[in-house]
Amino acid sequence: MQAFSSQMQSRAFLSFILPFWPYFIIFIILIQTLKYPHSSPTPFRKHRLPPGPKPWPVIGNLPEMLSSKSAPKWIHQLVKNMNTEIACIKLGNVHVIPVINPTLACEFLKKQDDIFASRPESMSSGLVSRGYKTTVLSPYGEQWKKMKKILNMDLLSPAKHQWLHDKRMEEADNLVRYVYMSQNNNEGGLVNVRIATQHYSGNVIRKIIFNRRYFGEGREDGAPGTEEIEHVDALFTILRYVFAFCVSDYMPCLRALDVDGHKRILKNATRIVNKYHDPIIEQRIKQWKEGTKAETEDWLDVMVSLKDANNKPLLTIQEIKSQITELMLATIDNPSNVVEWALAEMMKQPEILDKATEELDQVVGKDRLVEESDIPKLNYIKACLRESFRLHPSDSFNVPHVAMRDTVVSNYFIPKGSHVLLSRVELGRNPKVWEEPHKFKPERHLRDDGSNVFLIEADLRFITFTTGKRGCPGVVLGTTLLVMLLARLIHGFTWTAPTNQPVELLELETGPFKAHPLVVVAKPRLPNEVYSLSD
Ligand code: HEM
């Protein structure tokens, strides 16, 4: 009876308190705002902010963002509706500045690069970088400078690139073996190109960092084992959520609640990645300490052996662990996404596929497989890759850049702390820049004088590696992976769609990602002995 009456009391209390919940939340938000006031007035305040939707007090345009199916699509639609090429959307206290025009993009990343060289601090980047110990995710400062210098000088230098040649080639051979073996599968030679490309990227970076392809037993046919599938899936989950407009990044007072579930998903994915990486890293550090390892064979060895001015280890274990995860993330998505789309587009326009195959036969011949030394001569292949980057970027936006002080860009006031988002989708498809923007037309990237095509796009008419302080340090490795992947697939095999299943080019509703994996038939096109590959 007493239990019943206390139940009644708590029900009465609940029905009394429920209508006041919204006021309670607004109260917390107001306290939050008082804790984090807007930046103080500066002389730039006479300039207007870029055009944008009217924000609600305190919460800004968060309600509209939350009621949309996809935040990037909502932002792009706003920009389109306002007929502008730069906008300002207020999410909580943060000014988010989407940009779809290359001249403006160059203002941010070239002319005022010094001001826009920071990154946002967020739940996801803090978690993945173990408290900003890495490069991509760390705000501008001493830690970022330390890590970027190590990448440029010790891991990605031309000499180190040369040193790692054989490891990359082993994986390029493994890719061909994997596709070649599909002839023997009981699906009539069907190849899931997404699996082939994602695991090629995963295999190469695992080989470079850990000197191994497999975490577990591995497989004879070069295909990924269960451990590698779990590892690569977890990396892609992190990539999907790392800059995914998490509500609490704009309303820090909601951080403890994990309202959109992003924290739980990211924690789970990083746990999986750490489960594979941490034991290898810990054992290797021990081996170097005990003197049972003395030969430098991979990036992990390099990282463990780096010394500071006092001959002490330059990197802490946390720095090594977080930087390794970040290097995996940085390598894995662009090659797989861009090459899967490129092959799908080329199969849709067979004359393009024929032209690429002709170039390969001319440069490489039919008696051997493509080698890295062929890359400078494969201009049509590189033009196809550029076209795929332009039309099918691996994400809706470039990694955010943060304004380190108030400034003016193109007569608009950009307040300190603004998040600048160069739109990968809308830069590449901007009709003022590109004729027939939705058509896959590699010829537009060939040069009249026949000179070398590069994947770098320094004018930011679309995004590949960008430029400036925050530009990608992995241009050479990235270019090598991309060209080898597409060139080996096209040179080694003829590709046809299975009967009654034509190739389609549908995008997901949420972004520029291919809705369905490309699953097509591969037939070897070179003499059999060319495929007898080293293990
Ligand atoms: C495969 C093709 C690749 C593409 C298309 C690519 C593209 C990019 C882009 C667009 C950025 C952001 C630049 C900006 O903030 O403006 C970036 C940053 C970065 N990339 Fe790459 N990347 C690739 C491969 C790699 C590889 C192989 C590595 C190293 C293993 C790497 C390491 C990094 C790092 C460390 C940063 C952060 C730079 C900084 O914040 O200072 N990337 N990359």
Q: Based on DSSP secondary structure assignment, what is the total number of beta strands?
A: 9
Mean pLDDT: 92
Strand order of the largest sheet: 1-2-7-4
Distance between the termini: 76 Å
Q: Rg to the nearest angstrom? A: 25 Å
Shape: globular
Poorly predicted runs of 5 or more residues: 1-14, 31-41
Structural class: alpha+beta
Helix content: 40-55%
**Biggest sheet overview:** 4 strands, mixed
* Order of H and E elements: HHHHEEHHHHHEHHHHHHHHEEEEHHEE
Number of contiguous helices: 19
Subcellular location: Microsome membrane
Transmembrane segments: 12-31
Organism: Acacia crassicarpa (northern wattle)
Binding site for heme: 472
What would you note in describing this structure?
- By secondary structure, the chain is an alpha+beta fold.
- It is 48% helix and 6% strand.
- It is built from 19 helices and nine strands.
- It has helices at residues 2-17, 21-35, 62-67, 71-81, 102-111, 123-128, 142-155, 158-163, 165-181, 193-210, 226-242, 247-250, 262-290, 299-305, 317-348, 350-364, 379-391, 424-428, 475-492, and strands spanning 89-91, 94-99, 190-192, 401-402, 407-409, 412-414, 419-422, 493-496, 519-524.
- The strands form three sheets. It has a four-stranded mixed sheet. A three-stranded antiparallel sheet has the order 3-9-8.
- The longest helix has 32 residues, at 317-348.
- The protein starts with a helix and ends in an 11-residue tail after the last strand.
- Residues 1-14 and 31-41 have low confidence and may be disordered.
- The structure holds protoporphyrin IX containing FE (HEM).
- Residues 135-136, 148, 151, 327, 330-331, 334-335, 398-399, 463-466, 470-474, 477-478, 481-482 line the site of protoporphyrin IX containing FE.
